[in-house]
């Protein structure tokens, strides 16, 4: 086996143009000339480091082995002569500081609700991290209504029951879990903590709950699962379908190697194009941010610095229900469609053989004034109740309390997901994730006992009063009275205007 070519820092520095670009990562020299024009986050970040050492910026964001798998062995030119590199050369271009401020963090033990974590995150997270996590589409109406509709549902407690012994144990897609809620997929958790999704995985194992890993996670799904250090703990994997289908097929092939750990694929359907998240756009992105799974990178352009928009630029907007068959050819895992917003699409998910649906609206981050998640759950009861017997129904969006969880479960949800709250809790690392889990688990347990049940199998719609929302639930798939005027041109009406 031949020895790798050794290049000096001076030799690497000569390759600093858009048509001839080398970078150094971990002592290895890579040719990124052909790659940077097609980079999902734009070429500028790569060109900023062209001819220099990008190791520190690279390792700060994602796993060390990503670059070789992304570029391929043919782009590995050689190794850097360490004696030839000065400290100034290694420093590279200036980087944006992203570390949370510890000065404003109160002791973890003083936080007693999910809202407390959100309050701390608003003060401690970097401006970009807070904008990315908390922002929603345009006027943020759906984001806020996701929570408010839960507050309009009242319990109908049944008392004088023996509730001395209660349990929150459940099954989600056949997986045993101590909790009927899981960590929803959320991108770039490393924005608030260097261990990001790895610490979420460790906490999930300790609390016997499930984590759904995002395609845009800071680390590769393999690194996240390996960090959990548990040979049997289940995970779910969320998939954004790449417009280059071969990349999604390759990713699913990698997932297959972990099929004893990854138990389901959640394919996101509510993000064919990114929504306009103004708070996220207003704060410039750090170009060194990159997903450890999709390889997508942050950037800035004439529209702003929206992480969600720029890092999601690879997502296939042509995805259709017919592609469920394509997915099934490339994975044998149960398929859950994530982001269902109507009873009609819930019916289609059942017809196309999906194992489950996840009702949601991307946390209100895409189409503002799309329906709050709980209203869609009620719409299913009114228009297609049979679907509850054909697949598992999950829900996320607006969940902040154990009472919210119990209301959703009473109305037929198998489980609920928490996204933003877990990102906020990660300010405190693994301990924060575990503390938040304890808080909402205790809230759920108390709510169960006070409503008169000791097992989630005993939850049923009769335990809640939805009268304040019933008038908002559609009674038909179409509009109740407005007529379709899209064909009025056939009457010559527009020509007369």
Quick tags:
497 residues; alpha/beta; 34% helix
Short description:
By secondary structure, the protein is of the alpha/beta class.
- The number of helical runs is 20
Write down how many β-strands occur, each being a DSSP E stretch of 2 or more residues: 18
Q: Please give the radius of gyration in angstroms.
A: 24 Å
Beginning-to-end CA distance, first to last residue: 78 Å
Query: How confident overall, as mean pLDDT?
Result: 88
Poorly predicted regions are none
Strand order of the largest sheet: 10-17-16-15-14-13-12-11
Strand content: 5-15%
Question: What structural category do the secondary elements indicate?
Answer: alpha/beta
Instruction: Name the overall outline.
Output: globular
Helix content: 25-40%
Q: Quick one: biggest sheet?
A: 8 strands, parallel
Can you tell me about this structure?
The termini are far apart. The chain is globular, with a radius of gyration of 24 Å. 34% of the residues lie in helices and 14% in strands. Strand 8 and strand 9 form a beta hairpin. The chain is α/β, with parallel strands linked by helices. An eight-stranded parallel β-sheet has the order 10-17-16-15-14-13-12-11. Helix 9 runs parallel beside helix 10 and helix 9 packs across helix 19.
Set down the secondary structure blueprint.
Elements: E1 6-7, H1 9-13, E2 16-17, E3 20-25, E4 28-31, H2 44-49, E5 52-53, H3 55-61, H4 66-71, E6 76-80, H5 87-91, H6 114-124, H7 127-134, H8 141-151, E7 154-155, E8 170-172, E9 175-177, E10 181-183, H9 196-206, E11 211-213, H10 221-228, E12 235-239, H11 245-256, E13 262-268, H12 278-282, H13 307-311, H14 323-330, E14 335-340, H15 343-351, E15 356-359, H16 373-383, E16 392-396, H17 402-410, E17 415-418, H18 420-425, H19 429-451, E18 464-465, H20 467-470
Helix pairs in contact: 9-10, 9-19, 17-19
């Amino acid at each position: 086996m031949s020895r790798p070519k050794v290049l000096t820092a001076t030799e690497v520095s000569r390759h600093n143009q858009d048509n001839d670009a080398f970078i150094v990562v971990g002592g290895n020299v890579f040719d990124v000339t052909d790659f940077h024009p097609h980079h999902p986050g734009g070429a500028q970040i790569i060109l900023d480091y062209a001819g220099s050492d990008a190791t520190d910026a690279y390792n700060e964001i994602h796993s060390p082995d990503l670059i070789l798998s992304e570029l391929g062995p043919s782009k590995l030119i050689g190794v850097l002569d360490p004696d030839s590199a000065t400290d100034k050369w290694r420093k590279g271009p200036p980087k944006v500081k992203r570390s949370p401020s510890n000065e404003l963090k109160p002791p973890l033990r003083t936080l007693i609700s999910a809202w407390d974590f959100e309050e701390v995150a608003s003060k401690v997270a970097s401006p970009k991290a807070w904008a990315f996590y908390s922002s929603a589409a345009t006027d943020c109406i759906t984001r806020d209504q996701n929570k408010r509709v839960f507050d309009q549902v009242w319990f109908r407690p049944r008392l004088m029951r023996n509730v001395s012994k209660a349990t929150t144990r459940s099954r989600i897609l056949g997986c045993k879990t101590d909790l009927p809620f899981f960590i929803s997929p959320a991108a770039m958790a490393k924005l608030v903590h260097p261990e990001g999704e790895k610490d979420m995985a460790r906490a999930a194992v300790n609390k016997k709950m499930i984590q759904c890993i995002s395609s845009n996670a800071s680390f590769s799904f393999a690194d996240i699962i390996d960090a959990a250090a548990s040979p049997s703990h289940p995970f779910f994997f969320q998939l954004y379908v790449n417009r280059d289908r071969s990349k999604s097929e390759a990713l699913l092939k990698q997932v297959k190697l972990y099929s004893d750990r990854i138990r389901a694929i959640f394919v996101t359907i509510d993000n064919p194009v990114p929504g306009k998240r103004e708070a996220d756009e207003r704060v410039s992105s750090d170009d060194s941010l990159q997903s450890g799974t999709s390889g997508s990178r942050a950037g800035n352009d004439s529209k702003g610095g929206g992480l969600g928009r720029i890092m999601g630029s690879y997502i296939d907007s042509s995805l259709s229900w017919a592609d469920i068959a394509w997915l099934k050819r490339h994975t044998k895992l149960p398929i859950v469609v994530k982001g269902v917003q109507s009873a009609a699409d819930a019916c289609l998910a059942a017809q196309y053989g999906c194992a489950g649906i996840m009702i949601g609206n991307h946390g209100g981050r895409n189409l503002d004034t799309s329906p709050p998640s709980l209203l869609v759950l009620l719409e299913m009861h009114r228009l297609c109740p049979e679907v509850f017997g054909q697949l598992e129904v999950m829900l996320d969006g607006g969940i902040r309390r154990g009472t919210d969880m119990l209301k959703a479960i009473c109305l037929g949800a198998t489980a609920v997901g928490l996204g933003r709250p877990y990102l906020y809790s990660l300010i405190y690392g693994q301990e924060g994730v575990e503390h938040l889990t304890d808080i909402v688990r205790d809230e759920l347990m108390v709510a169960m006992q006070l409503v008169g049940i000791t097992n989630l199998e005993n939850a049923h719609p009769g335990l809640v009063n939805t009268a304040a929302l019933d008038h908002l639930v559609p009674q038909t798939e179409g509009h109740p009275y407005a007529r379709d005027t899209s064909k009025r041109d056939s009457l010559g009406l527009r020509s007369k205007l």
